[in-house]
Write a structure and sequence with these properties.
Oligomer: single chain
Order of helices and strands: HHHEEEEHEEHHHHHEEHEHEEHEEEEEEH
Largest sheet: 8 strands, antiparallel
Distance between the termini: 51 Å
Structural class: alpha+beta
Number of strands: 17
Radius of gyration: 22 Å
Helix content: 25-40%
């Protein structure tokens, strides 16, 4: 009994120590001068204020977190230029492809439970991918094409690493439109699984596993989660990631009481000036049937919510007192899964992998993770420095003749002691 009690006490003590070693909440108001030259970090202010004043971008929220401590968090510009509503740090942004990492982490919890293996054929779960074709030729005048049968079987891993051959750009976008495939957003009453079954009718750009082609592969992963869990994708993500991390402001479709916090989406045509975007990219978070949830690009949220997610990654899968995902699973997700398909920079199962070959191109530490979204969101997760760098803006195209993302990286890293 005494030994049993001793082991139990040691186990409890070790468990508590493990939790205490990792920041379980974002820490505000801490003195961070031990790690940063704060006056140098504030160089961000003058740069972004200049971008706003010159009309290059409508708004921006920047955030830097070091070992769980919020070192920097400021808002610039306008939530709505026409109404002269200032941007605030708690504003909600369209996250676009920043959605992917949340989805992939949620999916990998099913991998941990043994419900799916990465090299299984996707047809085991979604039979519509059984007879895939690779594009040979395309006639733009008639929107018709020729193709040949793919020689390789699509696996789950192909969709996680964007090596499936699916493509939605250029002529493939025209093919998607003809087939009625919703890729990012939709006003229609089309569930995710139905959208993915339509996606399976697309011809591939190349043989599976032979190249990196960035597309809406993560929608397939989302549909697979629905099939394996029996839950709709938002409920699944909410239960697996959002709620455990305390991410209370992240949605596919915003509740009415939070819609006024959504920033306005603008575009900056080359040589032009900021103009309010009209159409589905602007209003998808609050209009239409609100049925199609795209885990590739459809989430909206605050920068604080995403910082919690990033801190969970730095904590090796733990945050808010909850174990979301295992340490070794995250290590697997951080490994380069595409070889030299992207040149010097690798790709894991959601994000860039900063390889030694790419080190000369960036101030960011080797082994860091980075991705963003087409509307301007951007994140860095740096395990070496225990650092998170976030920049949120909603601007299209992102960007014209300047790069506020790289600027944020440079100013943050040069301020480190």
């Amino acid at each position: 009994m005494m030994l049993t009690g001793l082991f139990a006490s040691l186990f409890t003590s070790c468990s508590q120590k493990s939790t205490e070693q990792k920041p379980q909440q974002l820490i505000y108001g801490a003195n961070c001068s031990d790690a940063f030259y704060l006056d140098r970090l504030n160089l961000i202010d003058s740069a972004y204020n200049t971008y706003i004043a010159n009309g290059y971008m409508p708004q921006c929220v920047g955030m830097v977190v070091h070992k769980g401590r919020v070192v920097y968090e400021k808002a610039f510009g306008w939530r709505d230029i026409e109404k002269q509503i200032p941007c605030q740090t708690t504003d909600i942004f369209r996250m676009a492809s920043s959605s992917k990492a949340i989805m992939c982490v949620a999916f990998m919890t099913l991998f941990e439970e043994g419900k799916v293996q990465l090299d299984e054929p996707i047809t085991k779960y979604i039979p519509e991918f059984e007879h895939m074709e690779v594009l040979d030729s395309f006639d733009s005048s008639t929107c018709t094409w020729t193709s040949h049968p793919a020689s390789k079987t699509l696996t789950v891993r192909h969709f996680l690493t964007h090596t499936s051959g699916l493509c939605i750009d250029g002529i493939y976008g025209k093919i998607a439109d003809k087939l009625g495939v919703p890729t990012h957003m939709s006003y229609d009453s089309i569930p995710l699984q139905e959208a993915v079954r339509l996606l399976a009718k697309m011809p591939l750009k190349h043989e599976p596993g032979e190249a990196f082609t960035y597309a809406c592969n993560t929608n397939v992963i989302g549909a697979l989660c629905e099939i394996l869990s029996g839950k709709d994708i938002y409920t699944f993500i909410k239960e697996r990631v959002l709620d455990p991390c305390g991410m209370t402001d992240t949605y596919f479709y915003l509740p009415k009481e939070k819609q006024d916090r959504l920033v306005t989406l603008y575009e900056y045509p080359k040589g032009g000036s900021l103009t309010r975007v009209e159409g589905i990219y602007q209003d998808f978070p609050y209009t239409g049937a609100q049925i199609f949830c795209s885990p590739s690009a459809g989430l909206c949220g605050t920068i604080q919510d995403y910082a919690k997610f990033c801190q969970m990654i730095l904590n090796n899968g733990e945050f808010n007192g909850n174990r979301i995902i295992g340490r070794k699973t995250l290590e697997l997700m951080q490994k380069n899964g595409v070889g030299k398909m992207r040149g010097e920079i690798g790709f894991g199962m959601a994000w860039d992998v900063f390889t030694p070959e790419n080190a000369h191109n960036t101030i960011v530490s080797e082994g860091s993770m980075r991705w963003g979204g087409m509307f301007g969101t951007d994140y860095i997760i740096d395990p070496q420095e225990q650092l998170i760098v976030l920049m949120y803006v909603n601007n299209m195209p992102n960007f014209s003749g300047y790069n506020p993302k790289t600027l944020m990286h440079q100013v943050t890293y040069q301020a480190l002691k």
